[in-house]
Amino acid sequence: MEIPYGEALGLAIWNYFKLSDYFRLRWSAAVHGEEEFWRIEDYWRRVIRNNQETNFGVSDKPKLQVGNIVKLSEFTLTEWVPWIPGMYHTSMGFGLRLEANKQIEGVVEETNSKIHNPYGSSITVACGVGSIRAMMHDTPDGRVKIIGASTGKDMSGAVPVIFSQRAYDRIKDRIERNGSVRASIEGTYVEMPEYVDEFLHRSVGIPRSCIIVKSPLNVRDIQDGG
After folding, report:
1. Which has the closest alpha carbon to 59: 81, 34, 37?
2. pTM strictly above 0.90
3. To 5 degrees, how large is the angle CA 118–CA 196–CA 214?
4. Each residue of 4-21: pLDDT tens digit?
5. Could you read off the pLDDT of 134-149 as tens digits, one per residue?
6. Please, which residues have CB within 8 angstroms of residue 178's CB and are 6 or more apart in sequence?
7. How far apart are CA 195 and CA 176, in angstroms?
8. Is 144 domain-assigned?
């Protein structure tokens, strides 16, 4: 049976913008509220709270719970994701970075990069410094892209965010052209999917979590640069 043109067009628009996911998120935000963050530090305070103390103090607000609707306002988005999410912001990570700075043997003038001795290099890895560029992934829910979101300069401390392919298409060209993009995104706070374990490492005491963004309508206020 042939579907009428108007109905087919409406179905195509519904699927393209993932409107069922968009309206589900909007309903949940209206009923249960939304947690909005303007700074990366405030986000990690709510994640690491009651686990490992952050190097900038503990939030007086409740710890984020799986299922919370989260908005990151005017964050810089890049393809670079911290390889040990959250570790950079712990008091342990901060202390290890201070120790690593005592193990510097030189500096590369062209890039101003520090050269550590072997002990310092091992500490640098353990303290959460470092990020990786994740490719598109095929999952049971479709193709996704994992990106980093931050308001800081070092993406070692970024929030891992999983974008559906439709949502990522909203920023893909700008990221490929400029390396980063600034935008406001809304998604659901969830436990990290198992397929991420192959390239993002765990750290004891830090919740294994991320934000998932499904609808392109949840990516707004897009600007070039970061």
Report:
1. 37
2. no
3. 135
4. 544 443 444 445 546 677
5. 888 898 888 999 999 9
6. 224, 225
7. 24
8. yes
> Is residue 199 helix, strand or coil?
coil
- What is the per-residue DSSP string for 129-156? --EEE---EEETTEEEEEEEEESSS-GG
Q: List CB contacts of 220: < 8 A, sequence separation 6 or more.
A: 183, 184, 185
Q: How far apart are CA 224 and CA 226, in angstroms?
A: 7
**Residues spanned by the domain of 81:** 18-86+131-224
In a domain, 152, yes or no: yes
What DSSP element (H or E) covers 69? strand 69-78
DSSP count for the chain of H helices, then E strands = 7, 12
Does residue 7 lie within any of the structural domains?
Answer: no
* Total count of domains within the chain: 1
**Is 54 a member of any domain?**
yes
- Give the three-class secondary structure for 170: coil
What confidence category does residue 196 fall into, taking pLDDT thresholds of 50, 70 and 90?
confident
- In our burial notation (b when 16+ CB lie closer than 10 A, e otherwise), range 82-101 reads bbbbbbbbbebbbebbeebe
Residue carrying the six token digits 């990786």: 132
How much is the pLDDT for 175? Answer: 94
Quote the tokens at residue 84: 């040990």
pLDDT per residue as tens digits for the range 64-123: 999 999 999 999 999 999 989 998 888 888 888 888 888 888 787 777 778 888 888 888
